[in-house]
Specification:
Organism: Macaca fascicularis (Crab-eating macaque)
Distance between the termini: 71 Å
Subcellular location: Cytoplasm
Keywords: Cytoplasm
Structural class: alpha+beta
Number of domains: 3
Low-confidence stretches: 122-134
CATH topology of the largest domain: Pdz3 Domain
Helix content: 40-55%
Number of strands: 4
Order of helices and strands: EHEEHEHH
InterPro entries: Intracell_Traff_Signaling_Reg, PDZ, PDZ_sf
Mean pLDDT: 77
Protein name: PDZ domain-containing protein
């Protein structure tokens, strides 16, 4: 959990020091506030009196880091999807240009299935219980 600066009053010491909306508060007076609830951070700031030291991360640098992480994730996903696509293209080419199998018994199995389908009249141009025309 992080706390962001929502607004900075015009001409305030915070604005003059360079605090801008969108900045993330990293520490208050040397105390790391990462994971501390917003209300507690406000109380720490109010209790600090006249001397306050904030360490912040610029909002744009956080956004840049988030975008960089997203870019890396998308690149990895693209790489994986590209591999899947290429695999599907190879499968499609095998189906379009004929099945290449090293085991010749697969052809016998395919022929028997084909003859059953032709014999039952399930394939176009077949005659029920008629001869198999290859």
């Amino acid at each position: 959990m992080v706390t962001f600066v929502c607004r900075v009053h015009e001409s305030s010491p915070a604005q003059l020091a360079g605090l801008t909306p969108g900045d993330t508060i990293a520490s208050v007076n040397g105390l790391n506030v990462e994971g501390i609830r917003h209300r507690e951070i406000v109380d720490i700031i109010k209790a600090s009196g006249n001397v306050l030291r904030l360490e912040t991360l610029y909002g744009t640098s956080i956004r840049k880091a988030e975008l960089e992480a997203r870019l890396q994730y998308l690149k990895q996903t693209l790489y994986e999807k590209w591999g899947e696509y290429r695999s599907l293209m190879v499968q499609e080419q095998r189906l379009v240009h004929g099945l290449v199998v090293k085991d010749p018994s697969i052809y016998d199995t395919l022929e028997s299935v084909r003859s059953c389908l032709y014999g039952a009249g399930l394939l176009p141009g077949s005659l029920p219980f008629g001869p198999l025309l290859a």
